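Technical note accompanying the year-one report. For the benefit of new consortium partners, we illustrate the data format agreed upon in the data management plan: each record pairs a sequence with a structure-token string. No post-processing was applied to the example shown here.
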Amino acid sequence: MKCELKVFYHRAFDVGILLKGVDGLLELIAGMTLWLTPQSALVGGVRWLARQELIEDPGDPVANFLLHFVQGLPVGSRHFAAAYLLGHGLVKLGLVAGLWRGARWAYPTAIVTLTAFIGYQSYRWIQQPSAFLAALTVFDVFIVLLITVEWRSRQVLA
């Protein structure tokens, strides 16, 4: 039974790290998109993505929010968001690469870094509640727990 639990945790760790890697890659792509894409192209892209929803319901709150948000996004805020996403994505990808290779430094570094992200996300959630941010924070807590379990199991084996 104990061996089955270890296998379950290890598989959950692998899946969680894979998802963190995908998350980091998406943040990197989003950051590069925000940094390199002109405002008019961003507005056009959001308009294109929301077109079907707006045809069905011109008052759709989500589609209208996204469209107004992108239209009113100042260049300075866009560049800050881009830099934040690029940095966040690169850090996650670096940690995922280290964890995937089993590098000893990656476990404590990932735990500390993700805990800092959790703290910041919690602060942001208190300032502006969001179901997405809450879900992301809970997922990050779960990942930190999995990294801790995996790290401890590797220390026992060493």
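Partners are asked to follow this layout when depositing records. The mean pLDDT is 90.
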